Amino acid sequence: MKALLSILFISMNSLFFAQEFSLPALPYSFASYEPYIDAQTMEIHHGKHHQAYVTNLNKALAGTKMASLTMTQILMDASFRSDVVRNNAGGHYNHSLFWEILAPKDKQTSMQGSFEAAVKAQYGSMDSLKKALTQAASTRFGSGWAWLIVTPDKKLMVTSTGNQDNPIMDVAKDRGIPVLGIDVWEHAYYLKYQNKRADYLGGIFNLIDWGIVSDKYSKALVDPLLSEIEKDNWMALKDFHKVMAQTYHPAEEGNFVPLRTRSGELLAKAILFANSKPPVSKDKPEVHKALTNLAEQCEKIYELTAKNAKDEVLMKEITKAHDLFHQVEELCHD
Ligand code: MN3
Top-level CATH class of 234-331? Predict the structure, then answer.
């Protein structure tokens, strides 16, 4: 009975957690995007190219620890992923967004006032924003995407990425939540426009549903992912965390060699961390105070290892340092 229950539990677990990504249906018929994108291009782009990203992503994730991750978690740590996972996860995410924001003229919804106001404040007009997007799309060398994103400081930004990368990924130069993406791979336009990317870009703005884009803008402003990205951009925190994890966790298991040999490095990273500039929303006195305490604690550990202190003493002090680090992290959640 017990065995049966645990089998049931395991299969229920995999039912809930092993996800399969699937191709989203196009909201309109292939021909609805004419004359700006021809029906055949839509059919191949959606049914062949996008389907291939989905199939290859599922194949790459199957049976691995990554099978339980959300799309956002896969993208955020893109630098740790294999090329297969990075390219196909990006490909699936990017195209899903692309289909969502495109609509034939008579189906397009109207723009929200808050989005229009943000565009006016930052770009002067919708036309200037379109120009900036066209510029980003036409200067993107080779295959890639042009984006309109919401950055962690809640501003709009126009940017571009290569291949199937996107601004959620930790490899992107400009990071944020995309609210609009323009595919500038040749497979998006070659049949109709051949190599004339500028002509394709001239047509694409007729298909952008600004109502949907502005809805995505409002949602992005309150999405917790924004502060995740901001924290992820704090490199000094990431650098310190790495050394902390590689010294503290072995110590917990009774191995003090990493801590004894790397306490100087731990101290150096703590000092850099304490002197780094936190992202705007974390730039608070409590955070600075906790960082100073952490650096002092790491100095104490360094001195103790120099004096060859006992394991028990080191354990007590590294635990304090670890708690202080989590205090900083906690303070970072706003
Ligand atoms: Mn494409």
Answer: mainly alpha
DSSP 260-323: HHHHHHHHHHHHHHHHS---GGG--HHHHHHHHHHHHHHHHHHHHHHTT--HHHHHHHHHHHHH
pLDDT (tens digit per residue) in 21-40: 999 999 999 999 999 999 99
Residue ranges of the domains in the chain?
Answer: 25-223, 234-331
How far, in Å, from the CA of 253 to the mean position of ligand 1?
48
pLDDT confidence of 256, banded at 50, 70, 90?
very high
Q: Name the CATH superfamily for 25-223.
A: Iron/manganese superoxide dismutase, C-terminal domain (3.55.40.20)
Rounded distance from Cα 125 to ligand 1 centre (Å)? 28
123-161 burial: b if 16+ Cβ within 10 Å, else e: beeeeebbebbbebbeebeeebbbbbbbbbeeebbbbbb
